[in-house]
Structure formats: structure tokens, C-alpha cells
Amino acid sequence: MAPIPLQHPLSIISLATVGIRLISILYLIYAVAASLYTSYKSLGPSQDTRSRLAQRKRLVPIFLGLAVTAFSLATYTSLNSVIISYRTWVYEHGLDQPERFIPEETLFPEPDNSSVLDPVYIAHWLSDTSPYFDSLEIVAEKARRFWWGQQIDLATIAFSFLLSIEGRRRNIPLTSAFLALAHLVSLSFAQNLFFLALLLTPAPLSQGREGFGLPVAPSRLVQIRDRFFPRKPKNWYLSPGSFGLALAINYSTIFLLPLAAETPSFVNVVFFTRASTFLPLILPRIAPTSWGTIHAHPHDAYRPFTTIYRSVSFMSFVYYAKATIIALIANIPNSHRHRHSVFFAWDMEERTNWERSSTAVGKVLGSIFDHPAVLAVGWDVLICTFSLGLWAAVRATNTQHIIYSTYLNYGFNHKFEDPVEDTKRPSLNIKPDPELCEDVVSEHSMTLRSRRKSTRLGSVASSTAPSEEGVRTPGKRRGRSKKTKKPEEEKSYEPTPSEARDIVEGDILPADKSDWESGALAWGIAAFSGLGSATAGVFGAECVSR
After folding, report:
1. Where are the domains of the chain?
2. pLDDT 10s digits, 339-371
């Protein structure tokens, strides 16, 4: 069949958009790898002790494997979604269906060879269809599919605040690259990569280390940025109320996503939904100093952190409950079709009988197999949930801190301790390193032995030394012994306000044994309140567990 004239001309902008997206993914992965390498090379000698090194060797391969798995599944499902989209476009235009997508004889087939992909048709397809927005629209156009997709959008908001707080506190470079990968690849991929960054950055990096850990001079763009937006003082944090506009935009655009599906405004709503998640990273940089507070002690910022995450958890639960109710009501047993149903025999022949005999809950959960685009989102939700509970378990996160950072604390304030009051102390709440403790104990015992030896030598010398009258004083005085004064109890050291402000918060050392109670709590909240609420609880506890 000869190619028929196509109504839509080639669009250079559409083709360039696809190329820019692929190049951006490769560059962002390279940038994140460079950031992780910078963190690894910046580890100090105190982080190379036996216990920390053992924990790092145990945890880094686990989360790296989860990141690779998430990337592989995202790539596989994206390719399947693209193939279905292309075949649907060819079918709608009355063209021959390709028998195979990878030619065996030549990499550049002739245009009239309909058994393989035609580069001319691919160019017209990319000009007429955007595979990225087409997949997002397929997820958003049905309530039961959006039940999966909305959880990723809600969890991304909590993830952006973690990047803003921990990225700034630890000086992790290129934190915006993690968030961009969450949109372009998958949230589970970016989330596990940032878990690696947290493991490799237990202490804040120096300001002058970028790229591959080599000190570089600030570029001209950085100098211009610092001139218009100067760096904020130490322990300065933006007030929670200043994030109100960002949260309002985030949840407003998520609310509009299912309403804008199959309308010309869908692309604009998706753009604002993705762009608004960068506001928690941008606002602390561009906001004036008067919008925030300079805390006298790093722990004083814990209460604003929990306020932010508690709000995110509450809104996530409200949206999750709304999406669940709508999905259950809209999915009473009935048949349906979508734009790619012509290539799914199961849709055409068996779905009607299956839907009429299944429950609404089964239909919502089973919608993950409706389309590769929905399968991609479903796998993303499952991997995010698993890695979130695993992170809470291996970090032995305090369960009270998790609950305090969620909406569950609203009705149970009297039952849970305030993590701000629990951790607000002059000294750092860091678990002792056994390797360092042995060195300190041995050094302290050597010091005590040397002091005792010098004391004995001093007493012997004083007993044999001549007095002022030239007579030797006896080694032991007769008569009533002189009472010795008891040494006063040493007071605990309290740093001055300037010293407390300069305290560098260290990272907690993961426990030798994982606390699966914390992981079970995270998974339970995810099952009852959705992934977004559970993510807010675990990440909120991560920001105050020091």
C-alpha cells in the first residue's frame, strides 16, 4: 500500500521536543551520578570507620538496585506505550501495520517497505502526537486509572520538600536534577537515587565543591545569581506560611488534571502541575530574608518542618479519599473502551463479561493492566511504597516522629511526644560510633594512667624535698588528717547562641538491625491513606530525626 498524503505537516518543534527530552534524561542521569560521586569523595575520615563503612556497603547496593529496577521498568513500559501509540496512529490513518519494529536486513529501510518502521511515518506521527502527554492523558481520562496516577503526583510534592530541606542542609549539589528525573523517568527512580545521596552525605558538603569533587571557582552565572539572590544566613529557613502559595498551586493543578483530560488545555495543566513542584526548591533561594526566620539552634526549625509535612499529609489524604470514592462509584460493572482498545483482544472479547462479574475494588486495582502507560504508573507506586518502608526500617526511624509528621497527629497530640522538645538539646543526637568509642576509651585510660603516675612521682618528690627551714618534711604528717574538699560536680556544657547557630548537624547512624515496626507503619499509612500521606510522614521524620 502506497503512503497516502498526510494532512498534518512535519513540525520541527515537536521533533525537537522529543529529542530534547531524551537528551535531558541522559544529561540529568550524568549530573546525578556526578553529584553522588562528589558526595562519596567528600566523606571525611570519621565517616570511614568500621561501622559506617559496613552500613554503607550494606545499604548502598540495595537502593542502587531499586533505582536500576525502577529505571528498567520505566524504560520497558515507555517503549511499549510508544509502540501502541504509533500502531494506533497508523491504524487511524489507514496505513499498513509494521510487522516488526527492528529491521533485520538494514537499519535504513526503503520508504515503500511496509514491513518495518517507516522514518517518514515516524516523523509525521511525532508531529501529530506527543507520546509523553498522550500517556499522561490515558492515565487521567479514567477515574480508576487516575487513582494510581494521582498518588505519584501527591508523593512528588512531599519529595520536593525533602529535596528542599535536606538538599540545602547537606549542600547536596543539583537537587533539582532529582526532581526533574522524577517527572521525566519515574518518582521511584529519583527517590532511590536521593536515598543514595543521603547515605553518601552524612555531613554537609563544603560550599566550594562541585562537579566531581574538585574545587572550582564560581562561574559568571553563579556570581550574577548571588548578586541578585544573595545566600541566606546560616540556620535561616522559610516560614511555612510562605509555602502556602506553592501548595495551593500544586493541589489546584492536580485537581484540574482529570477535568482537563481530552481537552486542548490538558498540556497546559500538566505543565503547571510539573513546574509547580519546583517551587519548594526555588522559593528559599529567591525569597527575601524577612520571609523566614534565623533560628538560634538548628533544632528550632523542626517544628516548621513538621507543620509543612503535616499539611502535605492532610491534603494528600483528602485527595486520596476523593479519588477512591469517585473511582469506586464510577466503576460499577460496565464495559468500556479506550483509544487503543483495537489492539487489545482482551478488551474487545473478554472485558465485558469480566467487568460485569467483578467488584469495583477489583476493577480499580486491575486497571493497572489497562495500558502500558497505566502499568508504568502502577509499578512506580509499588516501588515507591516498598522503598519508602524499607528506608524507614533501615534508618530505624522513630515511629512517633512519623505519626507526628502526618495528619494522624491532629487528634492524638496528647499521646505522642513532641520531637522538637525531644531533640532540642545543646548536644547532637547522634548514635555513638563503636570504633570511635574504643579510641576515646583507650586514650582516656592512657591519660588517667599518666596522671596517676605523675601524681605518685610528685608526692614522693614533695616528701623528700627540703622545707624553707632546711629540714626535710616527713612523708606522712602526724595528728589529725586534713579533710579533702570534694570536687564540685561539673555542669553540662551549654553553647552560646553564636556557637549553637554554627553547630553542624550530623546524620544519624543507621542501626545494626532494621526496625521493621517503622517500615510496617509506613506501609500501613500508604495502604490506608495513600502514598502521598505516607511519604510525608517518613520524609518529615527524616528531617527531624537528629
Report:
1. 12-426+508-544
2. 666 565 555 444 555 454 457 788 888 889 989
